[in-house]
Write a structure and sequence with these properties.
The chain has about 300 residues and is α/β, with parallel strands linked by helices. The protein has a single domain (about 40-290), classed as Aldolase class I (TIM Barrel, Alpha-Beta Barrel). It contains 9 helices and 10 strands. The protein has helices at about 50, 75, 85-100, 115-125, 140-145, 165-170, 175-190, 215-230, 260-275; strands spanning about 35-45, 55-60, 85, 105-110, 130-135, 155, 195, 200-210, 235-240, 280. Strands 1, 2, 3, 4, 5, 6, 7, 8, 9 and 10 form a 10-stranded mixed beta sheet that branches. Helix 8 links the parallel strand 8 and strand 9. It is globular, with a radius of gyration of 18 Å. GO terms for molecular function: 4 iron, 4 sulfur cluster binding; metal ion binding; oxidoreductase activity. Belongs to the organic radical-activating enzymes family.
Length: about 300
Amino acid sequence: MSDMNILNKCMLCPRKCGADRLSGEKGFCRAGAEIKIARADLHMWEEPPISGSKGSGTVFFSGCNLQCCFCQNHEISAEGKGFELTAKELADTFLMLQDKGAHNINLVTAAPYVPQIIEALDIAGDRLNIPIVYNSGGYESLETLEMLRGKVDIFLPDLKYYSDKLSADYSGANDYFGRATRALIKMHELVGQPEFDENSIMKRGVIVRHLVLPGCRHDSAKIVGWLADNFAPQELLISLMSQYTPMYKAKDIKALSRRTSTFEYEYVCRLVENCGFDGFFQQRSSAEDKYVPEFFDKKYY
């Protein structure tokens, strides 16, 4: 069982804001003491070994320790949409998704709620027997990741930026690359290299996601280079995303007010292929806002 007292001076993420969440204070991520989610359902739009044929049992948590100006999920990451659950209700939600046929339980932007999630997983216990996916923006504390040892089977982190200036300008985190790369190394230590079942559904491992942003292909190239220098091709998978669409505040930022070009995306794809990594490339048609799920402010299931 997780110790909830950690929330009285919250240090769960690299911002270490020290918010007393148990007394009603909220930190940078906008999370309080209660679990808050905005959606729990089967999700078909993750990578093939995550969504498979039946879907990933995805739980979207409210709040975020990054404030990306182009966030597709800004309704929940920045604007606080969602509804509260107890740890017991979250455990029941996990079991409900498993009963619906989910290949896994997919925890999206869960860092502010790690202690409560551990409590919910403990409540579910052996009744929950599908992999747990930690789906993250990559800006993680090593101490919080260590809390997930033996609880999480698959890590699905972003590696968004190499440049500290880009991460400061676009996500409000000028230490992003250093934090995210150390976190990625820790994630790999916790779960090892990719493993799959007989239906090619992932059981363990790490998939690193990178979204190619307009005008940032050289930054993307540095990220691919870092991955090649620090991991052997068989140690992780890379998911290279082309889905960038100007949304939220990005519509008003000139450099981000267009879609990523085919040239930019294919340039980075070639670099990934040349480094020998396996992974996933997106269809250009995925860059549409229709793929953003509906979020709720009242429990609907």
